[in-house]
């Protein structure tokens, strides 16, 4: 089993603006301890990312998520639109050196930083005892009749002991492992297992990790829908649908998160005796 560590999990970077105007965003979003910055988002002006009118969040980078208790946590935002429609520069701090810091642990935190013609909201959690789940998702199309090897849908992670009763919490406090829409499917080779997602998610030691999956093979009738709960230390399983047209596999390795991904992996080998994921094939 991995040893507990002090870790943070970032869920989303929300961009609020007037009338959901289309933007091209560049700049930085960072967090730091003791002046050591780690960038969640970093783009130069000539690398600005398009934020369409229906889009509300920015993609962000995988970062080293360890922090030191009794330290100062800083969050900084410096974002602009290339056409001047949006500008945000601000910061927030948490002083973890005082007893009141415990009120910030193991909760869903939203830090809102107001700016010109909009705002930025960072959604995250601070865990004093947690580990890292290194998640790989594999998909295999077993029949050439299923949309010529194209899939779309989502795989989203959450915690067993957190509240997701509101739309805001479901939309902005879960970890998106994979997500694509029907007009932009992933192309797969038939009869070959392919890696479609690789992510790192922090998991508190007193919780289980739940992964919700909802995949389509280019048709609403060819649907893979279900969820799986992983206790810390659970690892790998594979499932077949009753139609035997596709396979879905999730593999997880667990680390303490203290060495920037270089710590010893705690991995269990998959066996035929491991429980199957509960999935449904749409009629």
What does this structure look like?
With 283 residues, the chain is mostly beta strands. It has two domains: 5-130, Immunoglobulin-like (Sandwich); 132-255. Helices cover 2% and strands 53% of the residues. The protein has one helix and 18 strands. It has one helix at 167-172, and strands at 5-17, 23-33, 36-43, 49-51, 57-58, 72-81, 87-95, 109-115, 118-141, 150-159, 175-180, 186-187, 194-204, 209-216, 223-230, 237-240, 246-255, 278-281. Strands 1, 5, 8, 9, 13, 16 and 17 form a seven-stranded antiparallel beta sheet that branches. Strands 10, 11, 12, 14, 15 and 18 form a six-stranded antiparallel beta sheet that branches. Strands 2, 3, 4, 6 and 7 form a five-stranded antiparallel beta sheet that branches. The protein starts with a strand and ends with a strand.
Which features would summarize this protein structure in a list?
disordered C terminus; six-stranded antiparallel beta sheet; 18 strands; mainly beta; seven-stranded antiparallel beta sheet; 2% helix; Immunoglobulin-like
């Amino acid at each position: 089993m991995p040893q507990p560590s002090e870790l943070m999990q970032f869920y989303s970077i929300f961009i609020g603006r007037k009338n959901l105007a289309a933007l091209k965003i560049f700049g930085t979003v960072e967090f730091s301890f003791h002046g050591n910055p780690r960038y969640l988002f970093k783009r130069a002006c000539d690398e600005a990312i398009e934020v369409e009118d229906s889009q509300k969040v920015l993609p962000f980078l995988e970062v080293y998520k360890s922090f030191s208790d009794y330290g100062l946590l800083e969050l900084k935002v410096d974002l602009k639109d290339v056409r001047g429609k949006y500008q945000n520069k601000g910061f927030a701090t948490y002083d973890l050196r005082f007893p009141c810091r415990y009120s910030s642990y193991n909760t869903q935190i939203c830090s809102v930083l107001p700016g010109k013609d909009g705002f930025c909201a960072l959604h995250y959690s601070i865990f004093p005892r947690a580990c890292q789940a290194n998640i790989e998702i594999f998909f295999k199309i077993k029949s050439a009749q299923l949309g010529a090897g194209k899939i779309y849908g989502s795989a989203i992670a959450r915690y067993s002991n957190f509240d997701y009763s509101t739309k805001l919490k479901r939309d902005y406090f879960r970890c998106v492992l994979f997500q694509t829409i029907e007009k932009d499917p992933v192309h797969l080779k038939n009869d070959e297992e392919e890696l479609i997602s690789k992510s790192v998610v922090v998991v508190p030691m007193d919780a289980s990790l739940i992964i919700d999956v909802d995949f389509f093979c280019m048709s609403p009738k060819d649907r893979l829908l279900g969820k799986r709960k992983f206790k810390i230390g659970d690892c790998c399983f594979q499932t077949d649908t009753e139609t035997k047209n596709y396979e879905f596999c999730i593999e997880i390795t667990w680390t303490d998160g203290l060495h920037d991904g270089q710590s010893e992996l705690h991995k269990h080998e998959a066996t035929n005796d491991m429980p199957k994921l509960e999935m449904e094939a749409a009629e």
